[in-house]
Structures are given as structure tokens and as C-alpha cells.
Amino acid sequence: MYAYSGILTALLQRHRTGEGTALEVSLFEALGEWMGYAMYYTMGGTAPPRTGASHATIAPYGPYQTRDGQVIFGIQNNREWTIFSTEVLRRPELARDERFQGNRQRVEHRDALNAEIDKVFGSLPTEEAVARLDAAQIANARLNTVEQFIAHPQLAGRQAWRQVDSPVGPLPALVPPVRMEDVEPVMAGIPALGQHSSAILAELGFDADAIDRWKQDGII
To answer: Residue 150: what are its φ and ψ, rounded to 5°?
Structure first.
């Protein structure tokens, strides 16, 4: 999405100036932009409740609690389940358990399956859980809280945060994920309600008398 919008911007710039440019898009920062609603919710003092990341038709799949955090992973087939049981959980008997023989059975017995996984993962530090999953070549990732994401060193290292003005005071905001060579992103303040109404309506061709009348009538 951001590569697309960046290319359109670059094409417009070339059309107007005759100058080309280079684009750089960070996947991490693009996802950060999409997480904006959750981050601003958290900045108000309350973390948003999780709505779940489990899969309706695959098990095990989703976030699991470790001793000091969370990891998210998914088992895609029976071969992975056998490896997961043997090398990650180190419970090879689970690979032979009739309740977990195939994905359909694992979905049907999801609660029992998760209980067995929780017994092991709940005793492991996140580092070890990730190391075991990596060694077994099971797709996985750490699951950060919104607070951990806001404080992530990658965002700080990329200088991705800016302070912008707002009606309630300065607020932190993420630089747009598309970074263009020799182009400084516009990080203007957040306008107050109605702050630009007159200017926008004038630009659309409405005269000052009509705009003033609409203000008096409470239309704008």
C-alpha cells in the first residue's frame, strides 16, 4: 500500500519537476502505521484488550504464554506436528495421541491440546521457546504488547517518531513509512474541530458571506 502511494507521489513529482527520486519502504514501519489506533489507545493509559489471534480451522495456531512473555506460531501439517511434539514440546507421546492425530482432531480437542502446550510453554522463558521453534523450523514470532512496540529500538533507531502539535498539546506521531530521497515528510499539527472549514469551503468556491452564515446557523 505504501509503496504504491509512494510511487504515485514520485510520478507526480517527476511530472511537475522533471526530477526522479528513490523510495524506501520499511515493512516494520508500515505495520506501525496500521497499529496507530492501538498505540493512541494505549497512550491514553489503557492497553486495548486482545481480540484473539487463534485460527478457526488450524490447531495449534496463535499466541501462547511463556514464562515471561508470549510467542505466536502455527502448525501447518502432521509432519510439523510430529516435529513440534518431539523437538519443541519434547513430548513425543503427544504425536501418537489419538486426540491429536490430524488437524481435524486437534481442532476438535483444541482445549486439551492447548492445555498440553501451556504446560510446557508456561515453564519456558521466551528466548528458549523461540530457540526451540526456530531449531524445529516452525514459523513463529515474539508477540509484543503495544507498549513494547512503542518502545521498540528499531523505531527509535530509524528516528521514526516526531512530535506534532494538537488541540490537547504535543503528541508523538510516526513518520510516514514511505521515505523519499531529499523529501522531508509533512508532519503538520492535528487541526482542531472546524479549524480549516472556512479555508476548505473558500477553496471550493463558496463566498465569505455564505460561509459566515453557515457558521451562525451551526451548519459548520
So the answer is: -55, -40
Question: What's the CA gap between 89 and 50, in Å, rounded?
Answer: 26
Tens digit of each residue's pLDDT (9 = 90 or more) over 36-88: 877 777 787 877 776 678 887 889 999 999 999 999 999 999 999 999 999 99
**What is the phi-psi region of residue 179: left when phi exceeds 0, alpha when psi lies from -120 to 50, beta otherwise?**
beta
Q: Which three cell numbers stand for residue 106?
A: 486437534
Q: Among 77, 83, 133, which Cα is nearest to 106's?
A: 77
Q: What is the pTM of this model?
A: 0.61
Q: How would DSSP label each residue in 74-125?
A: E--SHHHHHHIIIIIS--THHHH-GGGSSHHHHHHTHHHHHHHHHHHHTTS-
